[in-house]
Amino acid sequence: MVQATTSQRRPACRRLLRLAPLLALGLALAPAAQAQQPPAPTVTVAKPVVKDVVEYDDFIGRFEAVDQVDIRARVSGYVDKIAFADGAIVKAGDPLFTIDQRPYQAALEEAQASLESAKANLDFTTGDLARAEDLRKTGNISGQIYDQRTQALATARADVNRTQATLNRAKLDMQFTEIKAPISGRLSRRLVSIGNLVNANDTILTNIVSMDPIQFYFDVDERSFLAYEKLATGSLKVSIGGDPNEVSVATSDEDEPTHKGHMDFTENRLDQASGTIRARAEFPNKDLKLVPGLFGRIRILGSDKYRGVLVPEEALSTDQDRRVVYVVGPDNTVSLQPVRVGSRVDGYRVIREGLKGDETIVVNGLMRVRPGVKITPKPTTLPDVYVVAKQ
């Protein structure tokens, strides 16, 4: 019995000996596995900024000149002089082109001579009729002759009027040979050269656009238009309480609108095809930096004053087709909170839905967090105006 028991114990001991290295290895790896668990990530957290805000909306549009004119000749003839450089800034009345004046000068002199002849004939017929009246008193002239002289005087007066009109037209044609700028502004290039024949009221010689002030046209969608109509300020109104409705615009190379102007016009109906309404603002352009045809971004009043919740743009993330922020719970666990964002105010993004303003959110380090993960919060206080440092 004793020998059998001993023989049975030997296989069990062998198995224990074989398992011993594995048990030792497991005990050695257990502390290492515990040591490899990463610590909770440290991220910057803060409460949103809550304050009275007024929202502004941006729309894309294009600058256009207040006045633009195609320069045409009002008389036909050959171009004799060109008095401007391509692209020059001119004032109203500055000379631009001269049509060959010699034919019109000859017509003017002929009209002057005709007028002098008609006036001489008028003087003669006036005196002739006066003599006829004297003879008529004594009965030494027939009634027919008297009537003929009266008719001759009337014809002479009509000739004077006709030749005077011809002279006036000749003087006008002579003036039209000097083509002057009808408005102040910037010229385009010359479209004809000296020696070219131009036809009256047909050939375009160049064109000119006014520069100061300049207008900005943009389209507003139907939903926004209806919202603006409900505002006390009336964002698209030309004036508010008798004062101009001020707006601002930025060119494509500017981050923020800096050019100040005012609303000038709103169309009287919505376009049925696009569902938008055309509006116009006017801006001073003393330095002539704003050029007709430039794209711009106009900023108009989008809301009345209200208590708003603001977060930095860096605190916003995207989850498929929605915008979200990471909210930190009491146990420092991060959860995902969908939000509806509005316009930018004081460097922040307005949160229209999703936050009340008393939450703690992650504002820096979004790449190190995900829903359900605990973090090590690093609290901070957001300033009243958020300025992003430029690299």
Structural overview:
This protein has four helices and 25 strands. The longest helix has 37 residues, at 102-138. Among the domains are: 42-53 and 308-379, conserved putative lor/sdh protein from methanococcus maripaludis s2 fold (Beta Barrel), CATH 2.40.420; 57-66 and 210-301, Efflux pump adaptor protein, beta barrel domain (Elongation Factor Tu (Ef-tu), domain 3), CATH 2.40.30; 101-176, Helix Hairpins (Orthogonal Bundle), CATH 1.10.287.470. Strands 2-19-23-22-21-20 form a six-stranded antiparallel beta sheet, with no helix packed on it. Strands 3-12-17-16-15-18 form a six-stranded antiparallel beta barrel. It is α+β, with helices and mostly antiparallel strands. Helix 2 packs antiparallel against helix 3 (143-176). The chain starts with a helix and ends in a 12-residue tail after the last strand.
What are the main properties of this structure?
391 residues; conserved putative lor/sdh protein from methanococcus maripaludis s2 fold; Elongation Factor Tu (Ef-tu), domain 3; Helix Hairpins; six-stranded antiparallel barrel; 4 helices; 35% strand; elongated; signal; MdtA-like_C; MdtA-like_b-barrel; coiled coil; RND_pump_MFP
